[in-house]
Each structure stands twice: as C-alpha cells, then as structure tokens.
Amino acid sequence: MKAIVYTETGDPSVLTTVDRPVTDPGAGEVRVRLVVAGVNPTDWKSRTGAGPGQKPAFDEVVPGQDGAGVVDAVGPEVAGLGVGDRVWLLLAQHERPTGTAAEYTVVPSDRVVRLPDDASFDLGASLGVPAVTAHRALTVAEDGPDRLHPGALSGRTVLVAGGAGAVGHAAIQLARWSGATVITTVSGPEKGALATAAGAHHVVNYRTDDAAGRIREIAPDGVDLIVEVAPAQNADLNVAVAAPRASIAIYANNGGDAVTLDIRPSMVGNLRYQFVLLYTVGTAALEAAKHDVANAVGAGALPVGEEHGLPLHRYPLDRTADAHAAVENGATGKVLIDVSPA
Fold first, then answer.
1. 226 beta partners
2. Rounded to an integer, what distance in angstroms lies between the CA atom of residue 2 and that of residue 18?
3. Are 15 and 47 in contact (CB under 8 A)?
4. Which architecture does CATH list for 131-279?
5. How does residue 255 score in pLDDT terms, banded at 50, 70 and 90?
C-alpha cells in the first residue's frame, strides 16, 4: 500500500511517499481502507515536534488522526463492526505509529464509529478532532449537560470564538442542534458569512464592532458558555460578556501561550475556566462524544462544504505535504486528502 511517512521531525518536506505491506488487525482491532483523510493542526504540530531533525516517538510515523473509509478486516474480540461497514475514525495515530495518511490503517475498534450510508466520506473525515473537541467544550459547564441532544442546551446562550474554524464550525452546529442560541465572533465579512452558513444565530465582527457591547445587546444577561480558541486575546472580552457562573472552555492557544486574568471580576462572576485537550479528556468523555456526534450526523446536523460554512480543500495522497502546509498556513475550512476511490 502507499503511505506517507516521516522519520524525523521538521517542515512538510520530511513527509515522503513509500510502499508498505498491509498489516492484519490484532485482537480488538480493525483494518480500514481509507477513502478520505482529514488534516488538523495537531498533525503538523506533531510532525514538527520539539524542533527540526529530532526523532519522533516511533522510527517511522504515518501522520493523521482523522479519516473515513470502509472496514476491510476485523480482528478477534471486536463487536459491532464488520467488513464492509462505512466508518469514521478518531485518534487513529494517538500513541501509535500509523495514522490515516495511508491507503490502509489498523486501529483499535473503539476509535472507529459507523458512518450512515447517506453521510459522505468527506463529512466522516471532517469529524474526529474538530467534532469531538467541540462536544467536550460544550459539555464542561458545572450546571450544564454532559451529553448533547436536541434540547440539551435549550435556554442557554453559547459564544463560539472563531466560528469559521473547523472546531468553531462543529461547535456552532452541535450547539444549535442542542437548542442553544449561538453567537460567534469573526474577523471579517467572509468568515461571518461562513459562520452564518454554519448556523450561528448572531455574528459579531470583533475588528469593526464593539464586541462586548454587541454581545451584551444580544444576551443582556450574559452568555452561559464560551468556546474559546484565543484565550490570551479574549480574556477581557470573556469576563465582560460572561453570565454569572458561566464556563469558558479553552481548546487552543491562538494568539499567545500565556493568559493574564483579572482575578476579581472572574471571582465575582464565579466563572469557571476549563482547558480541553482531546488526548487526555478520558474514556467517558470520548465515548459520550462518539455517541452524540454520531446521532448529530444521523440527524443531518453536521454538514460540511462551503454552503454549510466549512469550505473543503482537497489534495491527493502524494501531496500530503502540501495539505499539511495549507493547514499550517491557516487555510480557512477543512483540508482533506483523497486517499482512494470511494
């Protein structure tokens, strides 16, 4: 099979195309023929490692946490999955040397979720990191639901920072599906149009609007949950618009690696700051996300494509390096790799 690998960390040029044997799944594992793979910031960050020329965790790494395809072999002790099942993957390469930038990948069965027949492989490859991260960010409130479903967030207002990104897009869609009023902040009209297409009820341009004032007009009592991508830049805004006992879920550090908080206003508001990292959220959170995201997909609540607020950028497998570079350079939308014919 064709696979993309790297043996040392660095820029996208360390990625090379190789031929490797197709391996059989072991106990509790399945083998998936990949149709489409997704690329996330975590993929290029892992590829760069601690610096150029360093050795990765394994002698050879096939990158890629997300993808979608068809199960073509099932190992012993696997229940609920069979050959021919259409599936999407999450955390395929976490603590493993082989991810989704290959024609076939072997993964533990608990990282494989069935994909409905009417859901595209593009959608399946766009779930994983973005949708599961968004799910966790929406379920961290101390007095909020730990599961998402229609009505779970009814009566609540959710603010999604950076609604045009992949996680922001998923957060908008999942929050709306769960009954929340959704506000999002964006940097310009093009991203505003994408956030609206994703389903945001209100879009605030933080470069041209008085963001805090506008959000308070929309939600006079404040917002109940903030899904935050740039905590350093937005610390003051979050305090200004948060409702009493609001939760701020931080899943990225865009704009700075350190946050300075004015303690007194956060204390007075009884605000709760929750950091979110997919790799360490724990089994219970992952299982809940898999179940709820699958239900949302089945309900048609997580569509992708520019008309749904998430433009798709496609690359063939042998141009995975270009796909990584596109994500690293801040491509708006979702970068996908066409691995094999559907």
1. 159, 248
2. 6
3. yes
4. Alpha-Beta Complex (3.90)
5. confident
- Give the CB-side neighbour count of residue 133, counting CA atoms within 13 A: 30
> How far is 65 from 92, CA to CA, in rounded Å?
5
Tell me which residue has tokens 């350093």: 232
Q: Return the DSSP state at 205.
A: E
Q: What's phi and psi for 242, nearest 5 deg? A: -70, 140
Give 332: exposed, middle or buried? Use CB within 10 Å, 0-12, 13-18, 19+. middle
Q: Are 71 and 30 in contact (CB under 8 A)?
A: yes
Helices 166-177 and 189-198, interaxial angle, to 10°? 40
Pairing assessment for the beta strands 334-338 and 312-316 based on DSSP bridges: parallel
Two tokens, residue 217: 């007009």
How many other CB atoms sit within 10 Å of the CB of residue 166? 29
Contact 323, 39 (CB under 8 A): yes
- Residue 79 to residue 66: CA distance in whole angstroms: 22
Report residue 12 CA to chain centroid gap.
21
Residue among 17, 45, 202, 25 nearest 106 (CA): 25
CA 133, distance to chain mean position in Å, is: 5
- 2 and 102 in contact (C-beta within 8 Å)? yes
pLDDT exceeds 90 at position 335 = yes
- Show me where the domains of the chain are located: 2-126+310-338, 131-279
The answer as to CATH 3.90.180.10 being correct for domain 2-126+310-338 is: yes
Please write the tens of the pLDDT for every residue from 71-84. Answer: 999 999 999 999 99
The answer to whether residues 106 and 140 touch, using CB atoms and an 8 Å cutoff, is no
